[in-house]
Specification:
The complex is a heterodimer of chains A (301) and B (63). Chain A is of the alpha/beta class and 301 residues long. Helix content of chain A is 38%, strand content 21%. Chain A has twelve helices and 17 strands. Chain A has an eight-stranded mixed β-sheet with strand order 2-5-9-10-11-13-14-17, with helices on one face. Chain A has a three-stranded mixed β-sheet with strand order 1-8-6, with no helix packed on it. Chain A has a two-stranded antiparallel ribbon with strand order 3-4. Chain A starts with a strand and ends in a 14-residue tail after the last helix. The relative contact order of chain A is 0.14. The longest helix of chain B has 9 residues. In chain B, strand 1, helix 1 and strand 2 form a beta-alpha-beta unit. Chain B starts with 11 loop residues before the first strand and ends with a helix. Helices cover 25% and strands 16% of the residues of chain B. The chains are: A alpha/beta (301), B alpha+beta (63). At the A-B interface, strand 1, helix 3 and helix 9 of A face strand 1, helix 1 and helix 2 of B.
Chain lengths: 301, 63
């Protein structure tokens, strides 16, 4: 759908209930209601279910830029505009050309940052323009097994890492987000292979880790949409109790997963910046000495 | 597997009538010359009741 938005910018205070936290930032939403990919676990389908999940391009960009300026006029300190929370930042960039407008726009502000997050290798626009320190490009990574089973239509891991390498060589700040981690047969070897490939080719400034988490009703919607594929994804003993209401793998399994990935990353770069995102205090407390607090892929610091 | 982003071709584009003559709308439409364009009066409407939400989620990706 081609239309307009009245609000492109929404503030997120970083709180997901009483104990699950992220960092505060502004969500930037020029494209709403979904994306062309078919990720089994994607929460956008659930979030937008009442509006029909067609992809909506909001083309009143002048309003978007006014709203960003307004936020900055009333802010002190660094402000992150996260364009990867409610959409894949680059999947439709060849249609919208949004990055060719937004990246130069942010170069005019010393304390405003544009955070892009993608599962695509759609970087032609990024490579055609001048990068700046105000823009951070992140790739959502997963094991190739998880990509093949649960991220249909997205770029392969090799394609994503190649795109990240090209962007880093062009001068962009790059990061990785291994999220949602998924426990599947042979996950250790698959994720070790992912880390090996990613860190052999690139030097990301941060790697943020997270694991599968879904609201119970979202599970039901995913099964209705994706059938056996979603049933298999959901075939675990998930636990309740997190303050964001989402089901997760049991803490013991999450700690095992994060510890494995942290060790794999550290074996390549002992000083790598590693963070967790949207985890519970009990997991944070176990891993707090091995991860960086108040730093994650969602924001600048 | 290959990234399907660049091969994305909507079957239908719903065009909100208030932006129908906007140059950016025309530019985007020109990228998809064979698309079925439907002019709509309202941007917000409820999903059809005869289509289950899961099916609507998938079919919505085509427009």
């Amino acid at each position: 759908m081609i239309g307009q938005a009245s609000s492109f910018v929404g503030h997120f205070d970083g709180q997901l209930g009483s104990t699950v936290r992220c960092c505060p930032y502004y969500k930037l939403v020029p494209i709403s209601n979904g994306c062309p990919y078919y990720c089994t676990y994607c929460y956008l389908g659930y979030v937008y279910r009442k509006f029909t999940s067609f992809i909506k391009l909001n083309i009143n960009y002048d309003t978007m830029f006014k709203q960003i300026r307004k936020v900055l006029a009333h802010s002190s300190g660094k402000v992150s505009f996260n364009m990867g929370e409610m959409l894949d930042s680059l999947a439709l960039d060849h249609v919208t050309n949004l990055t060719t407008m937004l990246i130069p726009f942010f170069s005019d502000f010393s304390k405003a940052y544009l955070m892009l997050l993608t599962k695509s290798c759609n970087v032609d626009n990024l490579l055609a323009i001048e990068p700046n320190d105000q823009t951070v490009v992140s790739w959502s990574l997963n094991s190739q097994h998880a990509v093949s089973k649960y991220e249909l239509g997205t770029a392969s891991i090799d394609e994503r890492i190649k795109a990240a390498k090209l962007c880093q060589e062009h001068g962009y700040r790059i990061r990785f987000r291994v999220d949602p981690g998924i426990l599947h047969p042979n996950w250790q070897a698959e994720y070790a292979n992912l880390i090996q490939k990613a860190l052999t080719a690139t030097r990301p400034e941060n790697i943020t880790l997270g694991m599968l988490r879904l609201l119970p009703r979202h599970f039901r919607l995913a099964i209705e949409a994706y059938g056996n594929r979603a049933r298999k994804l959901c075939d675990h003993n998930f636990t309740k109790g997190a303050s964001d209401g989402k089901l997760r793998y049991p803490p013991k399994q999450r700690i095992e997963f994060y510890t494995f990935l942290i060790n794999a990353i550290r074996s390549f770069d002992k000083n790598a910046s590693i963070s967790l995102c949207r985890e519970t205090p009990e997991v944070w407390n176990i891993l707090k000495d091995r991860c960086e607090l108040k730093k994650c892929n969602c924001v600048i610091w | 597997m290959m990234d399907t982003a660049k091969t994305f071709k909507p079957k239908t584009i719903l065009l909100w009538q208030k932006v129908a003559t906007h140059p950016e709308a025309q530019r985007i439409l020109d990228l998809f010359p064979s698309v079925d364009v439907k002019l709509i009066k309202h941007q917000r409407f409820s999903p059809p009741r005869d289509i289950p939400p899961g099916q609507a989620l998938l079919s919505g990706k085509k427009s």
